[in-house]
Amino acid sequence: MQQQTLAIVKPDAFRKQSTGAILARYEKEGFKIKAARVRWLSVREAESFYAVHRERPFFSSLTAFMASGPVMTLVLEAENAVLRHRDLLGATDPAKAAPQTLRNLFGASIEENAVHGSDSEENARQEIAFFFSGAEIF
Ligand code: RTP
Ligand code: MG
Q: Is residue 48 part of a domain?
């Protein structure tokens, strides 16, 4: 079943100009890019996007980081896209991410870990709607 997921090239990877390499990897792995946009989140938008983590000790640091520079938000489509994308990301901590995963290749720390990916089909739907209208997804 074709499925969509939301990816965010986070500010660390965007700053390091890793965006092109990440997009190339998506295409190589068979993900179709259905929407893509560069944006600079406000702290408030980052807080709203990561609201599920608001009680976590790293919340204020995470949201400041996510608002620290431009990001690229993407809608990716593939068979079983949500899980396949999470596998391609690797573990949250790049030091623990399997070789050749995006976080292993491009992440710097447990916070500056290069890419976000939706973790369930339901969250993917919500996260895609957070950033894109239906008319912006092709
Ligand atoms: P994401 O939501 O960004 O795809 O990452 P994830 O599911 O692998 O990890 P999650 O637990 O949802 O955490 C969201 C983001 O918060 C930052 N983080 N910092 N300092 C810390 O211990 C810590 N733990 C998580 C990371 O940027 C993580 O991706
Ligand atoms: Mg998460």
A: no
